[in-house]
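Sorry to interrupt, but I need a hand with the structure work. Could you write out one complete protein record for me, on any chain you like? Could you add the entry underneath, on a fresh line?
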Amino acid sequence: MHICCYNMVIVNGQAAYKEFKTRLKLLVSKYPDLITTTLSNIFTMRLIGNKTHGDLAEIAIAEFINQYMYDFRSVHVGKDLYRAKSHEEDIKIINEITEAEFPVSLKAYSVGPLQLSTDKNFQMFPRLEQESGDVEDRNKIEEIFSDPAFTEFGNINVLPLIYDENRKQCNILVFDYDRAQEQTMRISRVEGGGRRKHPVYRFYDSDGDFICEVRYGDAAANALQRGLWTHTVNGVKYFDSITGGWIDYSHNLILVKLFSHALISSDVGHKSALEKIQKDITRLKQQSGLKR
């Protein structure tokens, strides 16, 4: 009974996340300036530090949901709760109508390799090691996906913010787990070589196109050495673009200056600035025609 209830929660969570993605995509298509401004501000944070934008993306997207998606509420989980998390999550989203709650993992990656899961219990790679040679039998592939080791394959709600710094373009690309699972026709073990020391298992479709890969690394290894990965160029046909394709972004240098001044000012100044910023958010809503 406990297992059935757990599976029910997972299924309901997936359905709730899919509805959220549909609503987010609709919002972005209607009010593109809102997401362009938000993503520009997020990627501007790379001017402060190469990894700064990733952490700030979590609170930015959470606030974007709270301000612009009226039927949803979002809570930033916080790094201090990492060890207690039951899912790989950065924010929790609540559907205000259905009261469904689901976790979401935010990824802010450069175009190219994208980690979907750390496979923190180190189950996927050992399971694939049980096979001898390439797996090309569809029944065997379905058996692998049905294995408890792959339970999390489609149960991780990842929202990737992808940027191309050279072209100053960005995209919100969501990996289609269902399609990837349905279209996998071959799983191949590829030995290490070049910059990669360890073997990987790569998943391909009937056209021989790359879908995703499971990387080596035991439970004690660095998270970047293991888990489920894909590629936003090589595996692009297995992504759904929430932004409807690539959008141009620009750096907001005033935001960098605002941060530097905020860090040496008091909460009195912060309160005054926050009031003005909230007024500007209201202006953006009115300007775009966004209404409750």
User: Anything to note?
Assistant: DSSP finds eight helices and twelve strands in the chain.
